[in-house]
Every structure is written in C-alpha cells, then in structure tokens.
Design goal:
The chain is α/β, with parallel strands linked by helices. It is 34% helix and 15% strand. The chain has six helices and five strands. It has a five-stranded parallel beta sheet with strand order 3-2-1-4-5, with helices on both faces.
Length: 178
C-alpha cells in the first residue's frame, strides 16, 4: 500500500513561512508574525482529532548571518503563542551550499520529526508551499499537499502529488479522502 492510499495521517508537518505564516524574508522579529487566516482553525481541527502537529522550516538566514538562533526561537515562540503548541519543531539553520541532510528538499527534518514522534514517514503528511517541501516529503516517504502562493512556480504546482487552494482544503484532502 503506497503513501497515497493510507488512512488519515497520525501527524501533519507544516512548512512555516508561506504555509502557516506570511513569509517575511529572514524574519527575526516576533512582532512581524502574521498567521494565515485559516491556520489556527486548521490546527485546532487536527489537534481535536488527535493528530499531532509539527513544523519543518529552512532558516538559512542563520547561516547567512542575517538571523540568530535566538531570533528564530523568538519567532517560533510567537507562532506557537498564536497558533497553539506544536508537538515537534525541526529547524535547518544551514545555507543552500552547506550540504546538510536536513535542508529541504532533503528529507532529514521529516525523518527527525518522525523519530521524535515515534512514527514512520508513511504515517505522516507534509503541507508546504513550494517544490522543496514536496520533494522532501517524497524523499522521506511521507504524503504531501502543496498549497501554492504567488511565489510557487507553475512547474512546482504541476509536479505536486496533491494540490489544495488553501490550508483548509489541504487538511480536508488528508482527513476526508475516501
């Protein structure tokens, strides 16, 4: 049974910027955190159903010297204050050329989140806004749903296994599949 024919996921991992909150490039200021309108309701729905939630986020601003890890932590704390507690956070502080195994499109953050949650990747879904999110999910063996934004390239949308118009639609695809 492939990952597209499984039951409701036991956890949903979200990309942070452009998926849960509006993308403010290299944001180190918690006051600039602006969740998408549906984010809180979608997360409540998942949590009420006993589905665990997590965040997987590339934060190359740390490697580039544009952000400190303390600033990333402060922004993440603000997100959690606004959207509720996540079961797991995975953050890649590396730059694109660092060759790490965690930076999306590599599957490292998904594998780490799954290990911390005690789940297999096939029990997990990833929701993101760009092709790197989808590629990381595919490489890990997780289900993936793309929620395109204006920065999502048409070829990323065309290649995505599942596409939803918004967060609510993405979660509906995961929870209400026949």
């Amino acid at each position: 049974m492939g990952p597209w024919k499984m039951d409701v996921p036991r956890a949903v991992l979200f990309d942070r910027d452009g998926t849960l909150v509006r993308d403010v490039p290299y944001n180190g200021n918690p006051a600039l955190v602006d969740p998408f309108p549906q984010a809180a309701a979608v997360l409540r729905k998942l949590r009420r159903r006993g589905i665990r939630t997590g965040v997987i986020t590339n934060q190359s601003g740390v490697a580039r010297g544009l952000l400190t890890t303390s600033q990333v932590t402060a922004v993440n704390s603000r997100i959690q204050h606004l959207l509720g507690r996540f079961d797991v956070w995975e953050i890649c502080p590396h730059g694109p050329g660092d060759g790490c195994a965690c930076r999306k499109p590599q599957p490292g953050m998904i594998h780490s989140a799954c290990a911390r949650l005690g789940l297999q990747p096939a029990e997990v879904a990833v929701i993101g806004d760009i092709g790197a999110d989808m590629a990381a999910a595919e490489a890990a063996g997780a289900r993936a749903v793309l929620v395109p934004t204006p920065v999502t390239r048409p070829e990323e949308t065309a290649a995505a296994p599942l596409v939803a118009r918004d967060l609510a639609g993405a979660v509906a695809l995961l929870l209400d599949r026949p």
